Amino acid sequence: MRTAERALRAHADAHEAVFAEASPVAVHAAARALREVGVERGPAPRPLRTGRNRSRS
Q1: DSSP string covering 2-50, please?
Q2: How large is the average pLDDT for residues 24-51?
Q3: For an engineered disulfide with 22, which of 26, 40, 43, 48 has Cβ 3.0 to 4.6 Å away?
């Protein structure tokens, strides 16, 4: 497994562990609040290109 894949899996596992302790109501409320912040901020910026792997876009 590549380093990036391991990092993403560890990140996902950490999120799963945190949210496993939260009630579904709390998770829903947090997701709604994050969506509101995102809406107020506007669309997400486009990722920066480093010039690597251009054929994979």
Answers
A1: -HHHHHHHHHHHHHHHHHHTS-HHHHHHHHHHHHHHHHHH-SPPPPPP-
A2: 79
A3: 26
Largest separation between any pair of C-alpha atoms in the chain: 43
Does 57 score more than 80 pLDDT?
A: no
Nearest alpha-carbon partner for 10 in 35, 18, 30: 18
Per residue in 15-34, pLDDT (tens digit) is 889 888 899 999 899 889 98
Q: CB of 44 within 8 A of CB of 38? A: yes
Q: Residue 15 and residue 6: Cα distance in Å, rounded?
A: 14
